[in-house]
């Protein structure tokens, strides 16, 4: 089956729906009209630029360029993780922890999937490596960001409880144990919900794209199952690493709570 080509004027028709939604938000005084239009413009510009980059990358197909693209995606994801936290660790620790957690989880799962499960030749073939890494990074980024935000917010709000537990002789792990567990649950919940609803409530994006491009539904289903499982693994391991390292950073060697290592707000 041939893929139906889309022209720019057809995309323009789709953009009118976003414009209509922005107008409705303005009439309802939600204050989201400008943000919605900026996000839509960023989507169009960023995806167009990525398309041009990927076309060039696919034609070259060398490991250094694929690795450079992956590192750039990782650093941008790390920045997004830091920006989504209301109380973030000072001194670049939020960026470092988020980026390191995604590197350990998303990159390792991607390499394992490419070399062991899918097995393209070469294993870093951009057609497989970049989309797979992008999906893992995007979902892992969401999980890590939610977990870190819930962790720092929980410690900030329950600081008296944590300090009381420390004074009663509990270790730092015990004093913030429930906060850590809540943060980890928060990071894992989106992918758990996505897996539970896949195929019943919604058709996942990759599967839908493959079917629209002419791939047999049975094959598209296999790839989607693989993607969902790898995303779950990447998000889970990334969340565990991020919460473990960040929570340790909130206490010093004498196991004292160090709220001075947190910013008061995202704008600090």
Automatic annotation (TrEMBL):
<feature type="transmembrane region" description="Helical">
    <location>
        <begin position="191"/>
        <end position="213"/>
    </location>
</feature>
<keyword id="KW-0472">Membrane</keyword>
<comment type="similarity">
    <text>Belongs to the UPF0014 family.</text>
</comment>
<dbReference type="InterPro" id="IPR005226">
    <property type="entry name" value="UPF0014_fam"/>
</dbReference>
<feature type="transmembrane region" description="Helical">
    <location>
        <begin position="93"/>
        <end position="118"/>
    </location>
</feature>
<protein>
    <submittedName>
        <fullName>Putative ABC transport system permease protein</fullName>
    </submittedName>
</protein>
<feature type="transmembrane region" description="Helical">
    <location>
        <begin position="6"/>
        <end position="24"/>
    </location>
</feature>
<feature type="transmembrane region" description="Helical">
    <location>
        <begin position="225"/>
        <end position="246"/>
    </location>
</feature>
<feature type="transmembrane region" description="Helical">
    <location>
        <begin position="63"/>
        <end position="81"/>
    </location>
</feature>
<keyword id="KW-0812">Transmembrane</keyword>
<feature type="transmembrane region" description="Helical">
    <location>
        <begin position="130"/>
        <end position="148"/>
    </location>
</feature>
<keyword id="KW-1133">Transmembrane helix</keyword>
<dbReference type="GO" id="GO:0005886">
    <property type="term" value="C:plasma membrane"/>
</dbReference>
<dbReference type="Pfam" id="PF03649">
    <property type="entry name" value="UPF0014"/>
</dbReference>
